[in-house]
Amino acid sequence: GSSPAFVQALEAGRRGAPTDLTVLIEGESGTGKELLAQAIHRASARKGGPLVAVNCAAIPEGLLESELFGHERGAFTGAVRTRVGRFELARGGTLFLDEIGDMPLGMQAKILRAIEERRIERIGGNRPIDVDVRIIAATNQTLGRLVEEGRFRADLFYRLHGIQLRLPPLRERLDDLPELINTFLDRARRKLSRTTATLSDEALQCLWVHKWPGNVRELKHVLEGAVLLSDGIIRPEHLPPAVQTAGVTKLSTASASASAIASGRSLDETLDDVERQMILAALGRTGGVQVRAARLLGITEQSLWYRIKKHGIQARVMDSAPTASSVGK
Fold first, then answer.
1. If you compute the radius of gyration of the chain from its CA atoms, what whole number of angstroms results?
2. For residue 71, how many C-alpha atoms fall within 13 Å in the half-sphere facing its CB?
3. Using the 8-state DSSP alphabet, how is residue 169 labeled?
4. pLDDT for 65
5. What is the predicted pLDDT for the residue at 274?
6. Which residues of 184-215 are buried (b: 16+ CB within 10 A; e: fewer)?
7. What pLDDT score was predicted for residue 226?
8. Which of 22, 167, 184, 229 is within CB 3.0–4.6 Å of 223 for a Cys-Cys bond?
9. What pLDDT is recorded for position 217?
10. Composition of the chain by helix, strand, coil, percent to 5
């Protein structure tokens, strides 16, 4: 990517990688936080050691301490053998604490102590164990706001601020979209053993106007699915409904705007026509099944029913496509 915010994050990560400073990576889900953590580890003096990842949001609170620090045999019911924790497994390497913003407050205090003292104690143990690890933490939340709300310890927050990196969401780096599309299409083509994988203009328009709430991860999976479903040329119907809808909305609006300006029609008349055409297109694509058409349009079935009646659209619920009434707008 070449967007300034993304390049800035990569450059700061590159400069900080050879050091032993703690790294905090902030960014929405799917922006590539774990990939950046892996890149920093590979460029560090610890690259010969392990990179051990822990998803703090995925492990129940009652098990997180044992997962991180380990336990001795007999420490609690069910502890039939000694367990080595992630801190010890990462010795000489990097410990990646993903989604640290979801870590319980009580565990945050223990993590802070482990980072400060570079030693831990297993649950049920009575001797300190030295742990030489570098910490990289990541979160999809804003830790500063969590501190203000009392949901994250201020002392741990400041301790993690050795190097702070922010990965921008995809909607803020749309200039990188063509490069990302080409990269993911090529990977998907090779992964699925396809000879060609290209985008039609209509499909590209859908990708361009979609908001990408799942960011780069969503784009990757959307393109993989489209390559699988297509015959080499990806069209809108090969994309997920939410992505199709974005493209239909944008194209319909642009076409209607040009036509309205040329004909001198009012804004209300133009919007009614756009809405009617979108409903017809959705019903046609779903074989007249209103539940599916409503989902494609991103509205409720009740709202779709009301709009069908408003525009005088005759729609059958099963397999036949809808037809417009003879009464024009």
1. 26
2. 17
3. P
4. 93
5. 72
6. bbeebbeeeeeeebebeebbbbbbebbebebb
7. 95
8. 184
9. 96
10. 55, 10, 35
- Which amino acid does the sequence have at 222? V
Residue boundaries of the structural domains of the chain: 4-168, 174-324
pLDDT at 299: 82
Residues 6+ apart with CB under 8 A from 103: 56, 64, 97, 111
Ranges in the chain, pLDDT < 70: 246-268, 270-271, 315-329
Evaluate whether 29 touches 140 at the Cβ level (below 8 Å): yes
At residue 83, φ and ψ (nearest 5 deg) are -125, 130
Using a 10 angstrom Cβ sphere, with 0-12 exposed, 13-18 middle and 19 or more buried, the burial of residue 63 is exposed
Tokens standing for residue 54? 């822990």
Which CATH class, in words, describes the domain spanning 174-324? mainly alpha
Q: Tens of pLDDT along 312-328?
A: 887 654 333 333 333 33
Residue 43, judged by CB atoms within 10 A of its CB (0-12, 13-18, 19+), counts as middle
Residue 189's nearest CA partner among 231, 235, 242 is 231
The fold of 4-168 is: Rossmann fold (3.40.50)
